[in-house]
Amino acid sequence: MGSELYSVNEFEISTMYCFLYSALMRSHLKYYVQERLRELGLFSLEKKRLRGDLIEAFQYIKRAYKQDGEGHFTKAYSDRTRGNSFKLKEGRFRLDIRKIFFMMRMVRHWNRLPVEVVDAPSLKVFKVMLDGALRNLI
After folding, report:
1. How far apart are CA 69 and CA 113, in angstroms?
2. What letter would DSSP give residue 3?
3. Which sequence spans correspond to the domains of the chain?
C-alpha cells in the first residue's frame, strides 16, 4: 500500500472550503473597492458612464450639437414637475432593448438632477456641479 497525501474525501472537503472562501472574498472585494474609490474621491465605472451620458444629454439639450439632437428628447410638460426646470419625458416600452438606448437610459437620472445643475450656463460649470450632485445622488 502506498501512502496518499490526501484521501479523496479530504480533497473534496478542501476543494469545497477553497470554493467557499473565494466566493466569500469575492463578495467582500466589491465593497472594499467601493470604499477605496469613495476615500480617493473617484467614481466607479457605473458612475463614470452615467456622468458621460448626462454630459452628452446636456450638450444635446443646450444645442451644442446643431442638427443631431433635434427631436431626440421630449420635454415633460406638467404642473406637477418638481426639481429642475427641464424634466424629460420617460417613455414606456414593450422591449427591454429600448430601455438601454442612450436617450432613455439617462432620462430618469436627468430628471433627478437639481435645478442649479441643469441650468448651468456652460459645459464646464455643468461638469463641476454634476460631480457634486453625483456624489450625493447615487
Report:
1. 20
2. P
3. 1-42, 45-137
Q: What's the pTM value of the predicted model, to 2 decimals?
A: 0.59
Per-residue pLDDT reduced to its tens digit, 55-86 = 988 888 777 655 554 555 656 555 555 556 66
Cell of 57: 444629454
Q: Which residues pair with 88 in a beta bridge?
A: 75
Please list, residue by residue across 67-98, b when 16 or more beta carbons sit within 10 angstroms of its beta carbon and e when fewer do: eebeeebeeeeeeeeeebebbbeeeeeeeeee
C-alpha 11: how far from chain center: 42
CA pair distance 57, 72, nearest whole angstrom = 10
Residue type, 89: K
DSSP state of 88: B
- Alpha helix ranges (H) inside 1-122: 8-40, 45-61, 102-105, 107-111, 115-118
State the residue for C-alpha cell 420635454.
75
Using CB atoms within 10 A of its CB, is residue 121 exposed (0-12), middle (13-18) or buried (19+)? exposed
